[in-house]
Write a structure and sequence with these properties.
Structural class: alpha+beta
Pfam family, one: PTPS
Helix content: 25-40%
Keywords: Lyase, Metal-binding, Zinc
CATH topology: Tetrahydropterin Synthase, Chain A
Protein name: 6-carboxy-5,6,7,8-tetrahydropterin synthase
Radius of gyration: 20 Å
Strand content: 25-35%
CATH architecture: 2-Layer Sandwich
Catalytic activity: 7,8-dihydroneopterin 3'-triphosphate + H2O = 6-carboxy-5,6,7,8-tetrahydropterin + triphosphate + acetaldehyde + 2 H(+)
Number of domains: 1
Distance between the termini: 53 Å
Number of strands: 5
Cofactor: Zn(2+)
Length: 155
Amino acid sequence: MNAYGIPSRLQVLGSDIDRSQLKYHDRRVAVTKEFTFDAAHHLHAYDGKCANLHGHTYKLVITVSGRVNDIGIVVDFGDLKRVFEDVIKRRLDHQYLNEVLPPMNTTAENMIVWMWEELDRALEAHGRDRDVRLERLELYETPTSRASLDRAWMS
């Protein structure tokens, strides 16, 4: 090996490591991915500037947990991205939230519960074989303001 630690060759499945070794454990592990979408809204019965139509770049942080599959993966990050895009982004990105969400005041506190319900249904169908489940959501309206939910609170 040289001074920079560059390997002389790549590990080869079947000769350097067996497929049965890819799954190192059978423990529950959490996986987290962050996403953004842009949307506009306003709040009803609110005495403040958010009563006016305005927009945010929302950030949604999704944490799921499950047991690893036979190659050591709980959920592929690409699959988690597809679930987010199908369930949340496709419906909310560049939309007027007061119009596309169920009747509610479009607060982060209300929106995150709706998001939980929608994502939970989609993830249940996706990762049933490894007990993949939603553990935590964080919805940022701004870089310093967010609502959060944990699995225990939704039981």
